[in-house]
Write a structure and sequence with these properties.
89 residues; mainly alpha; 54% helix; globular; PP-bd_ACP
């Protein structure tokens, strides 16, 4: 299954709606996850778990870098790279 940026962003919105228990719509690439959406480390991990279920994303916590979670774009890049690596294996 090949996913694109739109797929990942849509999955993020769905996951964030559930994790934050409030509507999250209209994410843009520049939306900052911590500053704009007020995520913290706990809600970020919950979002990752949701994305593991919905996208088949597998994330090793050791590989997580703060830069990957700065904006929707940086996280999407990270997620697509993880999915590509897994699909290539």
């Amino acid at each position: 299954m090949s996913l694109n940026r739109t797929d990942v962003t849509a999955a993020m919105e769905t996951a964030l709606n559930k994790v934050l228990d409030r509507p999250v719509t209209g994410l843009s690439g520049q939306t900052r996850l911590f500053d704009d959406l007020h995520l913290d480390s706990t809600t970020m991990l919950e979002m990752l778990m949701e994305l593991e279920d919905s996208l088949g994303l597998e994330v090793d916590p050791e590989e997580l870098e703060a830069d990957d979670f700065e904006t929707v774009d940086t996280f999407t890049d990270f997620a697509l790279a993880q999915l590509e690596t897994r699909n290539a294996a």
